[in-house]
Amino acid sequence: MIVTRFAPSPTGYLHIGGLRTALFSWLWARKNGGKFLLRIEDTDMARNSEEALKAIIKAFSWVGMSYDEEVYYQSKRFDIYQKYIDQLLSEGKAYKCYMSKEELDALREEQMAKKERPRYDGRYRDFNGTPPAGIEPAVRIKAPLDGIITFIDGVKGEINISASEVDDFIIARSDGTPTYNFVVAIDDALMGITDVIRGDDHLYNTPKQIVVYDALGFKIPRFAHVAMINNEQGKKLSKRDGAIDVMEYKQNGFLSEALLNFLVRLGWSHGDQEIFSIEEMIEFFDPKDINKSSSSYNLDKLYWLNSHYIKQKSDEELSSLLVGFGVNIVNHPKKSIILNATKERAKTLKELSSQIKLILETPSNYDEKSFAKAFKDENTKGLLKAFGDNLKVANPKSKEDYHKALEDFVAQNSIGFGKIAQPLRLALLGELSGAGLDEIMEILGLDECLIRIDNIIKN
RNA sequence: GACCCUUUCAUCUAGUGGCCAAGGAUGUUGCAUUUUCAAUGCAUUCACAGAGGUUCAAAUCCUCUAAGGGUCGCCA
Fold first, then answer.
1. A357 CB contacts (<8 Å, ≥6 apart)?
2. Which of A32, A115, A150, A427 could disulfide-link A2, Cβ–Cβ 3.0 to 4.6 Å?
3. Which of residues 278-317 of A touch strand B (CB under 7 A)?
4. CA-CA distance, A97 to A174, in Å (whole number)?
5. CA-wise closest residue to A405 among A428, A387, A421
6. What phi, psi does A431 have (nearest 5°)?
């Protein structure tokens, strides 16, 4: 059984980098009929934010990634960790360190000055004298002193880190609370995680966690470290960058399936295929096909994907999605004509909603430049009026009727289509570009068309 | 500074020694279509980081160089 997990710390919003590794983990579990767990890494109480936690769960539900079992909170599992700290202490695999913060800083500075990699020097590793007074000790684990820590990374291949690079790191702070690398290893082992898929900023935590696995006699899972996503400037995505908060994509009118499709192709591929339904992602995903190199994201492709998925959506789905963008056509009798007229020219739901609003709302004013352009010919108003009169007589019903009315009018007056089309569009939409005139008029109906034509003539 | 990772078009990528004078997609530009804007179709543009090896043969293997990234907390 494959068990994967996503283990964010609730210190910021979920950004697309996190969403992508979560997606990879989720796909791998679903593909194998395994489990995908959600675990909140909140051991550092001072830095937790309730809001951030809610945002993460909200984002998960938006994209439709379901997790198994309940959400695990590390802050509720301290007694478990304590047990293992005591165990390691009594087995002599961990020890108390009485070094003060100041001493530690001094040591680090000294090592930096000598151009060495800063690391704990092990001074309390075999200490059995009288501890200094007034200092609450932290607990450190005994890391191997020599040799090489090796693991096979599912993405990068064999990774070798010499043991001298891994110091006796702290597993419990002086206030008794356990630290990240310790609890991650314990939880992953206890929860039976078989595949740890995470960002490669954790690559260096892996040897530390292996030290914990070994000390506790746990089985080491498979690791797959996914390279980072960079921003368009090729720099690391920052959590503070509001534009990349997952929920902002929703607010900006992106469909979750477009975002997921976009993310799955960032660092992963399946031949030349670009469009993946969720089912196909699950079917084809394999961590072995994840790229080693980091990638930068490119909004153009997301827009392309998004318009693709907008066109795929049913009228029912689209119209209910649009409610969130201030357009309610759920029960509109001409819903499907409206959507057909507009969805081809919208890259986002936001754009779609404003296209629809343009049609549904009677224009109250006209852009000066556009007006001047469309009405630069003095006869234009007269032409529009004549067209309105013709319409009244023709009494068109369908978009074919309207089309015929237009054609007839152009033929009768021997003018180019553009002569009437541009002013008419401005009259109907208040804009010079947008949906086809036939469709717009069918949606509006004869009366509203005449009102709008009349309005612009009076302008 | 030390250690680790990475390097194919502007961007995402295919590619595991011959099928590659490098394929797909987005973007660009052009043409067609059209009442506008789109959409669509067709075409166009653009890359193996560099230098040395190994080999009959290298984008693919090896070495070095360069550039980018990551990590060095009683943060996660």
1. A326, A327
2. A32
3. 289, 291-298, 300-301, 303-304, 307-308
4. 9
5. A387
6. -140, 160
Q: How far, in Å, are A5, A63, A71 from residue A50 at the CA level?
A: 20, 21, 14
> What would the two tokens of residue A412 be?
């009768």
- Residue A308 identity: H
Instruction: Name the DSSP class of A378.
Output: T
CB A129 within 8 A of CB A115: no
Collapse the DSSP code of A140 into the 3-class scheme (helix H, G, I; strand E, B; otherwise coil) and give the result: strand
Residue A336's pLDDT is 94
Half-sphere exposure of residue A64: CA atoms within 13 angstroms, side-chain side:
11
Element (H, E) at A89: helix A78-90
Residue A86, H or E segment: helix A78-90
CB A19 within 8 A of CB A263: yes
Q: What is the pLDDT of residue A70?
A: 93
Q: How far apart are CA A30 and CA A32, in angstroms?
A: 5
Q: Of how many residues is chain A composed?
A: 459
Of A317, A284, A367, A228, the residue nearest A30 (C-alpha): A284
This prediction has a pTM of: 0.93
A227: which DSSP letter?
A: P
Q: Does residue A131 contact residue A106 with C-beta atoms inside 8 Å?
A: no
Residue A171: name the closest of A127, A211, A205, A139 by CA: A139
CA separation for the pair A150, A45 (Å, rounded): 33
| CB A29, CB A193: distance < 8 Å | no
CA distance A404 to A391: 10
A137 vs A95, A97, A100, A216, CA distance in Å?
Answer: 9, 5, 8, 22
Decide if A311 is catalytic: no
Return d(Cα A212, Cα A142) in angstroms, integer.
9
Strand B, nucleotides covered by protein (CB < 7 Å): 1-8, 11-15, 23-27, 35-40, 68-76
Rg (CA), chain A: 32
A401 touches strand B (CB under 7 A): no
Low-confidence spans in chain A with pLDDT less than 50 = 240-242
Residue A10: what pLDDT?
84
